[in-house]
UniProtKB/TrEMBL annotation:
It is found in: Mitochondrion matrix. Belongs to the iron/manganese superoxide dismutase family. It comes from the Eukaryota. It catalyses: 2 superoxide + 2 H(+) = H2O2 + O2. It comes from Apostasia shenzhenica. The keyword Mitochondrion applies. This is Superoxide dismutase. Homotetramer. Residues 38-116 form the Manganese/iron superoxide dismutase N-terminal domain. GO terms for molecular function: manganese ion binding; superoxide dismutase activity. Mn(2+) binds at residues 61, 109, 198, 202. The keyword RNA-binding does not apply. Keywords: Manganese, Metal-binding, Mitochondrion, Oxidoreductase. Its cofactor is Mn(2+).
Length: 237
């Protein structure tokens, strides 16, 4: 299943119910369904982003790293269900970090795959229309925005993400960073991710080694601005 347009609503497309848990008479008035997530197919081949991102990186990143976030999130969900049914509050609290980390990893990577597009299919083509205008308005130019995202991504200590976000309240574009696998929503419920760049070493190290700035500089040749424009227009126009 190729992922379609991803929003807070449609991110639920990767979820499936796994049957209703029985009510155990522990104060829960109704039974609940366990919702697990699945690894989405990529909308392009693993080698389609070469030479910017190698097929080896894409395959490992998708099949191993993203799959691990999916598996670990689903396991945590099952444990959470069990803990809730037992009324084990300590376990419920303990599971929150695994749910945040692995659920965030699934959300972030599901967006990231949509943010990339082979150059021969329009990857790297600059944004036009409403988003192109907004970029010029809020950052003066696309070049300034790219420099800002590259600088903040390069300066990020440890692992994390750099985002082009839409603030739904002010209707302004913002550059934000998140640590680890924190999704953008942890910076505020009003932020909508238009573009997220993975700056974990697993995203570039096999090809770029320790030269993260080169990865950040080159990734713009495969950025799917059309997708970012669609998300922007869906929220603003
Ligand atoms: Fe990643």
């Amino acid at each position: 299943m190729a992922l379609g347009f991803l929003t807070a609503k449609t991110l639920g497309l990767g979820f499936r119910a796994r049957g209703a848990a029985p009510a155990l008479g522990l104060g829960f008035g109704q039974s609940r369904s366990l919702h697990t997530v699945e690894l989405p197919d990529l909308p392009y081949d693993y080698a389609a982003l070469e030479p910017t991102i190698s097929a080896e990186i894409m395959q490992l990143h998708h099949q191993k790293h993203h799959q691990a976030y999916v598996n670990n999130y689903n396991t945590a969900q099952e444990q959470l269900e069990e803990a809730l049914n037992k009324g084990d509050v300590s376990k419920v609290v303990h599971l929150q970090s695994a749910i945040k980390f692995n659920g965030g990893g699934h959300i972030n990577h599901s967006i990231f795959w949509q943010n990339l597009k082979p150059s021969k299919e329009g990857g790297g083509d600059p944004p036009h229309g409403a988003l192109g205008w907004a970029v010029d308005q809020d950052f003066r130019s696309l070049e300034v925005l790219i420099q800002k995202m590259n600088a903040e991504g390069a300066a990020l200590q440890g692992s994390g993400w750099v985002w082009l976000a839409l603030d739904k309240e002010s209707k302004k574009l913002r550059v934000e960073t998140t640590a680890n696998q924190d999704p953008l929503v942890t910076k505020g419920a009003n932020f909508v991710p238009l573009l997220g760049i993975d700056v974990w070493e697993h995203a570039y190290y096999l090809q770029y080694k320790n030269v993260k700035p080169d990865y950040l500089k080159n990734i713009w040749t495969v950025i799917n601005w059309k997708y970012a424009s669609q998300v922007y227009e869906n929220e603003v126009v």
